[in-house]
């Protein structure tokens, strides 16, 4: 293990192992909101001077000095378009075995880490938590996943702190006996800067049915407004049937964009449409848009109401109400520069990752100060026994 011993540590510098979602590499353009949130967390911690080693799919940023044991296999399809619900043949078993090896590596080098920050959607890190000898802080990014629920119950108080990205998400897990403190996702507000606004409407996110881009198209056409779609294709069949036939001069798809370009697009738009057709755990696109001063018209599903609470630049309508969404856009679009600045100022108070980082670091320090012992079970749980076939990566789409 290179450079992780006490030599060279600065006072107050934490040594953190971050377990990322494993489906996609953690790099730009981001595969989804979960990847974006974890990428920003790692980047911010590193800029603060903390030593962060990442357990993530090969090809991720921040892994140049990480041992091979922490590199997980990314999912690769033979075609040009990946799927957010299926896996390449044989991937699940390989990914589980790699995650198991990474956790074994952390256990063996436990003296080199102060805390593990767990964002994985696989149950295995939860199963192994009592055996690592390193305190773990887990964040719940999705609706309850049965394998994770069972693993948290089995680990009990030895698991460590559990966080949820919204009150809505915390309540959903609480119904299954899992208690979590709410710590919302945050935004790098320096990158998501105040934008000038513009004439077009914007929708951004993964192109999958539950994100509802097809509904945004219908609302934009009711208004006679041009709509720009930005994001990765997560369901090729959905895009082929519901999106591609509607593309033209008034509806364009610019594909996935790097954060800088995406922030410029959103900040140069009149209004962002957010159209979840499922119980959205958080909705990072809402916070990102508001940080640029761009107002949002959104369906009131899941954690959406929490994210936009009190914002002067948000209107919520009933899920699926296309006419109501169009009316909300008409009421919000084209705010003045002063109005946009007010929208951003409110968002900065709530979502700035720089503001939140102190709380995160304090949480990690408290966890690191809690004595832990690496329990040694008769047989260390194997990946295949812990949580079969739950190596998701987006934090948004959870297959049945």
Question: How would you characterize the overall build of this protein?
Answer:
It comes from Litorihabitans aurantiacus. Keywords: Glycosyltransferase, Transferase. With 400 residues, the chain is of the alpha/beta class. The protein has helices spanning 33-47, 91-108, 124-132, 146-155, 167-174, 213-223, 236-243, 259-267, 284-291, 304-308, 322-332, 337-351, 353-368, 383-386; strands spanning 15-19, 51-57, 71-72, 115-118, 136-140, 162-164, 181-182, 201-204, 227-230, 251-253, 271-274, 296-299, 314-317. The protein has two domains: 15-186 and 354-386, Rossmann fold (3-Layer(aba) Sandwich), CATH 3.40.50.2000; 201-351, Glycogen Phosphorylase B (Rossmann fold). The strands form two sheets. It has a seven-stranded parallel sheet, sandwiched between helices. It has a six-stranded parallel sheet with strand order 10-9-8-11-12-13, with helices on both faces. Strand 11 (271-274), helix 9 (284-291) and strand 12 (296-299) form a beta-alpha-beta unit. The longest helix has 18 residues, at 91-108. The protein is globular and about 60 Å long.
* SS content category: alpha/beta
Mean pLDDT: 90
Can you tell me the CATH class of the largest domain?
A: Alpha Beta
Basic shape: globular
Please name the defining characteristics of this protein.
400 residues, alpha/beta, Rossmann fold, seven-stranded parallel sheet, six-stranded parallel sheet, disordered N terminus, Glyco_trans_4-like_N, transferase, glycosyltransferase activity, glycosyltransferase
